[in-house]
Amino acid sequence: MPPLSMLRAFEAAARCGGFSAAGRELNVTHAAVAQQVRGLEQRLGVTLMRRDGRGLELTVDGHRLAGKLGAGMETFRAALTEVMDDAGDRPVRITLTPTFLASWLMPRLSAFRETYPDIELMLNPSPEVVDLQRTEHDLAIRFGTAPWAGLASELLLASPVVVVIAPKLLRGRTIDTANDLLSLPWVQEIGTDEWQVWLAAHGVQVKGKKDILHLPGPLSTEAIRRGDGVGMTARIFVEDDLAKGVLVAPLDDPEEAPLTAYHLVHRPGSLRAKVAAVADWLRREAAAEASNLMPRA
Fold first, then answer.
1. Which of 44, 48, 46 is nearest to 33 (CA)?
2. What is the four-CA torsion angle of 190, 192, 195, 198, rounded to 10 degrees?
3. Are 246 and 166 in contact (CB under 8 A)?
4. Three-class SS state of 220
5. Cβ atoms within 10 Å of 127's Cβ, excluding its own
6. The whole model's pTM is what?
7. Cys staple from 9: which of 28, 36, 74, 256, with CB 3.0 to 4.6 Å?
């Protein structure tokens, strides 16, 4: 099979009636078109075009090939148009963690709809890491450490981690150290171990503690608000709760707290227009959020 570039050059030259006109259509020089056509003739072992005065004339073999290639190119163009039209109409599919969706993205969706009423969103909240190479998801918002092999990623939002408690759970207790938390029940997101890591970093070893409630992300945050236990989360998810007094953070030290990071991830290469618009909107919202976070030294 000859290279597609040779077939494309010949089809354009035959349809346009010469190398110069074909070059203008293909955005290359007439010499480049001529070279591709001559290369095709050598590959096939036949003459496809001959000089006729100052112009070019197709041979019998040239007429036969040009007709078939023309029909083939029209099929390609129709298929490409169909794919592009379909891509333009497809929803923008995003996979993300349930906590990020419920606590950060959901409160912003009405503003997104006002700005982009023509973009259909399909959100898939899941704690599992979805393989973007094998699914139709356009974007992922992932918690953790970049990079991810074979994917393009960028830091979207970073936030200090904070330990929070509903005031009614304290019942007059004073929390001065991490060790004081051992007397309280805990709420922990399923599949995470931030509690143990944080306590160990503060010199507290946990053994035999049973009053721990494990819940999916959004439900764990709601349980903390209800006073079912002490919890740990990204500060961006509970900023309003802290401001309103729904939750308190007795051990809050923004300069010492570890950071949790969320990244915007997608397959390498350019994004279709609607996906690029959603990605840009997420970046703007994240930048606005970051400007409101307490500065770190």
1. 48
2. -170
3. yes
4. helix
5. 14
6. 0.66
7. 36
